Amino acid sequence: MNKGLYTSNKDDWETPQGLFDELNKEFQFCIDVCASKENAKCDTFWTKEVDALSMDWGEDTRYPLWMNPPYGREIGKWVKKASESGGVVALLPARTDTRWFHDYIYNKAEIRFIKGRLKFSNSKNSAPFPSMIVVFGNPKQ
Length: 141
Known about the structure:
Blueprint: H1 17-27, E1 31-32, E2 44-45, E3 65-67, H2 75-85, E4 88-93, H3 99-104, E5 110-113, E6 131-136
Parallel strand pairs: 1-2, 1-3, 3-4
Antiparallel strand pairs: 4-6, 5-6
């Protein structure tokens, strides 16, 4: 069993390459806003050191943006930022009972629930939670 998925000692799960490739064909992402050098999905990416939450994702930013945020307690801040910025496609846990889901996603963004459980890259087991793709604004502009 991969204990990391069941505990809070790891919150940065690498997007499965096949899922990203499928979405990238549709959206052609410019920037991965929550990445490390090891798991970046775009040539341009922002790491923890850049602190994307404090950046302006406005007009100076190339869209669309890809976001697979840390799944810890800070996830609501990332979802809020994506909602306010628009032009963001995010891989998120399908936690429909959370405040951030109702405040920033439900009836405000396109939701694509993923059938079954994702197997994140470099993980032996599938995630113990369902996942969803959320499209904030119009990333194809």
